[in-house]
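Sanity check. The docking grid for heme C depends on where the pocket ends up, so I'm generating a full predicted complex first rather than guessing from homology. Inputs follow.
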Amino acid sequence: MLKKRAALIASLAIIVAPMTAATDEITLKAIMQELRQNFLDVSDGFLLDDFDKVAEGALAIAEHPRIPPEQVRRVADELGAEMPVFKNFDVQVHELSLEMYKAAKERDRDAAVAAYQGMVTACFDCHSVYRERVAAILIETR
Ligand code: HEC
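Predicted complex below; grid placement will be based on this.
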């Protein structure tokens, strides 16, 4: 958890630090498409009582690739003071997917389901507030 927080702080620092490495092979959209598959796997795992499948999908969500710094910078430029709100949805998804992973490992269905529901809410909340706006910002970079 601490490591992830450090990684998050590091990724925020990139907003102000000039970036040299070109990372145009992965995009936020591609990350989202992977999250979709992980989300389907997790849901399928719950439906089939397959906790290994839940755990695997949950961990993949928790460890999703970082948004490329160039895209983070563009989004931050446009969202300004709202950037922490956007970031916080991602932190919520991260923390709840980790909780779901741990609960699935322990075969604690109630805790896993509760974390799943919270995570889905965070996915949908970010989409309802930011999806169109952020997609419009990023479309210019494609
Ligand atoms: C921090 C905000 C945020 C969170 C949290 C978030 N998303 Fe997204 N999502 C976006 C944005 C922004 C887009 C639009 C990307 C684009 O079109 O460039 C998007 C788009 C998508 C898409 C459509 C991709 C496409 O092909 O058009 C899927 C699927 C998706 N997200 C799944 C998920 C899932 C599953 C979760 C939770 C596990 C999640 N998202 C959490 C911001 C978020």
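Relevant for the grid: The chain is about 80% helix and 0% strand.
Also worth noting: The longest helix spans residues 109-139.
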